[in-house]
Amino acid sequence: MSFDYNTSRKQLVLPEYGRNIQKMVDYIKTVEDRTERNRLAGAIISIMGNLNPHLRDINDFKHKLWDHLAIIADFELDIDYPYEIPKAEMFKTRPRPVEYGTHSIKYRHYGKSLELMIDAVCDMQDETEKERLINVVANHMKKSYLTWNRDTVNDEVILNDLKKLSKGRINTENIKLNETREIIGKKRSKRNIRKK
Predict the structure, then answer these.
(1) Cα(120)–Cα(173) distance, integer angstroms
(2) Labelling 190: which of 10, 51, 61, 131 has CA 20 to 30 A away?
(3) How far is it, in rounded angstroms, from Cα 45 to Cα 133?
(4) Residues in CB range of 112: below 8 A, 6 or more apart
(5) What is the pLDDT tens value at each position of the chain, 196 positions in all?
(6) What's the rounded Cα separation, in Å, for the pair 84 and 121?
(7) Which residues, 6 or more positions from 70, have their beta carbon under 8 angstroms from its beta carbon?
């Protein structure tokens, strides 16, 4: 007696639709009457729509279902598609590799995004908004610093780092950082909420 394992079966083209849809599509490829193939294809589209109701939120979800039908059929299903079907060649080309950034990060514990935020804040024209955002950025720096160094945190270190990262464009004299216990307390309360 031999068992029929999924590993020994034909690989599914779009696994989210399951093996039964794959079998239905394989079957209608063998039907000779074009009218009957069109009718069966419409029935399969209805079933595919019911299996993936989240696709209904996507614009032109019917178009997407017909595209998926063509993909499952390996573009070999001869029916009257209500939409233009993509070509098989579109799916055979590999995407371009994503290039990694080569920029250096001055302080890794703050990250590159924070450096970009500091540059954006320095270029702001509205002084009131600029001052408010400088305080937000400085407190975010302290929170990031605490993530990597829980033992000691000196506000002067944070403010000096902010001055260096802004290349002296930010005056740190009037910045008031949050208390360390307040920042750590917020982190703990968030963790406790997640555990519940």
Answers:
(1) 20
(2) 131
(3) 52
(4) 101, 103, 105
(5) 667 777 777 888 888 898 999 999 999 999 999 999 999 999 999 999 888 787 777 778 888 899 999 999 999 999 999 988 888 888 777 888 888 777 788 888 888 888 889 999 999 899 889 889 999 999 888 888 888 776 677 888 889 989 899 988 988 888 888 887 777 776 555 555 555 5
(6) 48
(7) 77, 81, 85, 86
